[in-house]
Every structure is written in structure tokens, then in C-alpha cells.
């Protein structure tokens, strides 16, 4: 099961606007829902705000808005259905101590589980097929998967993948269980172990620079090989039902792919979130209609989080204690390897605010101070936490 073909970058007409939890629908077995906070079978628009550990979701069932504080700066959102009630639960993983924190949507109880080490990548999924999301991590250093089955609390390990791979767990064989899988960016190769029979499968699909977006795009109950190409906003999918190939231009450089079943037809829809303006753009697979929703702001993390190592840009260091030329204050901001955007009025910095190009001077009001805020943005990383300082 391999193919030497890979999608080449192409130039198609731009979309008409300015430019891990799994979506596979398994009819025979209950699968943990992805990003469905109200249990109506549709993916909801949702973001997590790292600066405050705040969750914001719009319920697709009635357009009501839900907000909940859960987590803190530095955590990684790992939402899933941990209690099997058909609704997505708020959950975070704390890398520094390898701790999972979950709020069960069924009764509001809180669950804590130590599982994983600093440097691991959380890969929650239903590995035992009981309909509940399991605690799981993948360790890049040795390519080993570590899973706790929710059905009986047994612990399981599997070596699969190499340093530099991206874990892409999903149900590739349609047996209702999450399979171990990685995508190798250097060569665009997928490597999967089918949980149904432990057979190993390889598929070449994608190229360096792509973002893997495996989901069930054809409603056959199996996860499809799929990538999104940021440079041109192109989606490339192989349908597992018949091996047909699908291409769709949707999105632009700087967007974040957020595929999900937003119309509840059992197929994953093409969707992106635009960080600069907090805008969602979705194509419903049921009828091809296009939908736009403003939800979130720059610095938020759209959910579900994409299958990739989670890394935030370094938080800027703002120095206002250097050389002073009264009444001026010289400001210096540092964030290695990142673009820095700042404000001098205490407002939220975004790519639309001033780009830092070197130290600058400000003049605080007589007898008072002014607030400098800054955020760092780096390729392939989430935006940093917002830094602030008084000048």
C-alpha cells in the first residue's frame, strides 16, 4: 500500500476573501467526538486563550456562547470526550509536569492524571475502542507511544516513528480504534499500524512544508491521508473508500487548518482560521456552501489543535531600564527568531500593530507611566504569550 505520487504545488484561483480528538464518523462504534461541545453531532467554533487559560465556544445547536476558565499559560489544549457522553470535554496537558486536567461535561467532575514527560507530544484518542478518549503521548526522542486505556486503566507502549516525525493518530482501518501513525515531513511519507490486525502501511502523500490534516472526508468511517499546503492554501486528500484524489483551494499563507464536520453530514469539511482577524472560513461538504464566522483573536489557539508538535514563539523580553534621556524612555524588545509586534498604549498587539525593528523612544505622561505590550510570531509556531512592561 504505497504510492510514489505526491501533490505538486499549483496555482489556482484564490478564494474570494482576503486572505489532537478525531473527526472520523464510525457508524458501528461510538467514537469520541471532535470539537462538539453541545453534543449535536456538529463541530463547534472554539478557541483556547493561552494568556488566561480561557475556553470560548459557539454551540452550533443554538448559537449560544460558552466560556470556561481551565488551564494556564504554557498548557496544551487536549479536548476530547473523556466520559463518553457525546460532548467534548475541556482538557489541558501541562508539559512541565506531564499532568492532564479534564472537566467531564457529563457531571462537571474534574479528573487529573500524570502521564508523559516534558518534551512529549500529547496524542489523545480512543485506542481501545470504548468510546472514551484515552490519555496518550508520543515521545519524539525515542518514537515511543505511551497510552492508558480508559476501559481498564492498562498501560500500553508502541515504538513507531522517528525524531522529526509528526504524530497523526486516526482510525485508518475503520475498526473504531485509534491507530498509531506518523507523517515524515522530510519525504512526505505516512506510516500507519492498523489496530485491527497490526499490519503496517506506508503512503507517500505531501511534501516538506505541508501540514498533515488526516480526517474522514468521504464518510466511510476511515481516516483519510490529507495535507494542507500553507504556501498556496491547497488541500490534498486521498479518499480511503476508493483511493480517489481530491484537491481544494481554501485558505492562504498564515491561516491555520481546522477541518471538522461543521454541517453534521458525517464528512469532514475544509476549514481554516485566520489568526490576524480571528475569522473562520468553512466549506460545507453537504452542499458546497461557504460560511464565515468571527470567533477568537490573535494569540488564541483554534480547536481542535492541529496534529503537530506544539510550540509557542518565545515571549518577548521588554527592557525599559536601559539608557534614559529624560523625558524619553528607550525601549528594547527581544524575542529570538521571531517577528515582534508591539503597542505603546497597553492594547493587544497583533500583526496589524507596529513591527519592532529596533530600539525606540517613548515619552511617558508627566508624573505617570505608559504600558508597552508585545507579542512574538515565528514560522510554524503558535503566537507567544503577550508581554507587558511599564515605561
- Count all strands and give the number: 32
Radius of gyration: 22 Å
Overall geometry:
globular
Which percent band covers the strand fraction?
A: 25-35%
First-residue to last-residue Cα separation: 62 Å
Helix count, per DSSP?
A: 0
Spatial strand sequence of the major β-sheet:
3-2-1-24
Give the helix level as a range of percent: under 10%
Please identify the structural class as seen in this structure. Answer: mainly beta
Mean pLDDT across all residues, rounded?
A: 88
Oligomer class = single chain
Low-confidence stretches: 1-30
Largest sheet: 4 strands, antiparallel
Which structural traits does this protein have?
mainly beta, four-stranded antiparallel beta sheet, 35% strand, disordered N terminus
Please give a structural write-up.
The protein has 391 residues and is mainly beta. It is 0% helix and 35% strand. It is built from no helices and 32 strands. It has strands spanning 45-49, 54-58, 65-69, 76-77, 90-94, 99-103, 110-114, 121-122, 135-139, 144-148, 155-159, 166-167, 180-184, 189-193, 200-204, 211-212, 225-229, 234-238, 245-249, 256-257, 270-274, 279-283, 290-294, 301-302, 317-319, 324-325, 328-334, 339-343, 354-355, 360-362, 371-377, 387-390. Strands 3-2-1-24 form a 4-stranded antiparallel beta sheet, with no helix packed on it. Strands 4-5-6-7 form a 4-stranded antiparallel beta sheet, with no helix packed on it. The chain is globular. The termini are far apart. The model is unreliable at 1-30 (pLDDT under 50).
Amino acid at each position: 500500500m504505497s504510492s510514489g505520487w505526491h501533490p505538486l504545488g499549483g496555482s489556482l484561483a484564490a478564494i474570494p476573501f482576503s486572505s489532537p480528538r478525531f473527526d472520523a464518523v464510525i457508524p458501528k462504534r461510538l467514537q469520541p467526538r471532535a470539537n462538539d461541545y453541545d453534543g449535536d453531532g456538529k463541530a463547534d467554533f472554539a478557541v483556547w486563550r493561552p494568556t488566561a487559560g480561557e475556553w470560548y465556544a459557539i454551540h452550533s445547536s443554538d448559537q449560544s456562547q460558552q466560556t470556561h476558565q481551565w488551564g494556564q499559560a504554557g498548557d496544551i489544549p487536549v479536548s476530547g470526550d473523556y466520559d463518553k457522553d457525546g460532548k467534548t470535554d475541556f482538557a489541558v496537558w501541562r508539559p512541565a509536569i506531564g499532568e492532564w486536567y479534564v472537566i467531564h461535561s457529563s457531571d462537571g467532575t474534574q479528573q487529573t492524571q500524570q502521564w508523559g514527560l516534558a518534551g512529549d507530544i500529547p496524542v489523545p484518542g480512543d485506542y481501545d475502542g470504548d468510546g472514551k478518549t484515552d490519555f496518550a503521548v508520543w515521545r519524539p526522542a525515542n518514537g515511543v507511544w505511551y497510552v492508558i486505556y480508559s476501559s481498564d486503566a492498562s498501560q500500553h507502549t508502541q515504538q513507531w516513528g522517528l525524531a522529526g516525525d509528526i504524530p497523526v493518530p486516526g482510525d485508518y482501518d475503520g475498526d473504531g480504534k485509534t491507530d498509531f501513525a506518523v507523517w515524515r515531513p522530510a519525504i512526505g511519507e505516512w506510516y500507519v499500524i492498523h489496530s485491527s490486525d497490526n499490519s503496517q502501511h506506508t503512503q507517500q502523500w505531501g511534501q516538506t512544508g505541508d501540514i498533515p490534516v488526516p480526517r474522514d472526508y468521504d464518510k466511510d468511517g476511515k481516516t483519510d491521508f490529507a495535507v494542507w499546503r500553507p504556501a498556496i492554501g491547497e488541500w490534498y486528500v486521498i479518499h480511503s473508500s476508493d483511493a480517489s484524489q481530491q484537491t481544494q483551494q481554501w485558505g492562504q499563507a498564515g491561516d491555520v487548518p481546522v477541518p471538522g464536520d461543521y454541517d453534521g453530514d458525517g464528512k469532514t469539511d475544509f476549514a481554516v482560521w485566520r489568526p490576524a482577524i480571528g475569522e473562520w472560513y468553512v466549506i460545507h461538504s453537504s452542499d458546497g456552501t461557504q460560511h464565515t464566522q468571527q470567533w477568537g483573536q490573535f494569540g488564541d489557539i483554534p480547536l481542535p489543535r492541529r496534529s503537530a508538535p506544539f510550540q509557542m514563539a518565545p515571549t518577548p523580553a521588554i527592557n525599559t531600564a536601559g539608557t534614559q534621556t529624560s523625558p524619553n524612555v528607550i525601549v528594547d524588545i527581544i524575542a529570538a527568531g521571531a517577528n515582534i509586534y508591539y503597542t505603546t498604549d497597553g492594547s493587544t498587539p497583533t500583526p496589524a500593530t507596529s513591527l519592532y525593528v529596533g530600539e525606540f523612544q517613548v515619552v511617558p505622561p508627566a508624573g505617570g507611566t505608559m504600558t508597552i505590550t508585545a507579542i512574538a510570531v515565528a514560522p510554524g509556531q503558535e503566537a507567544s504569550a503577550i508581554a507587558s512592561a511599564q515605561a
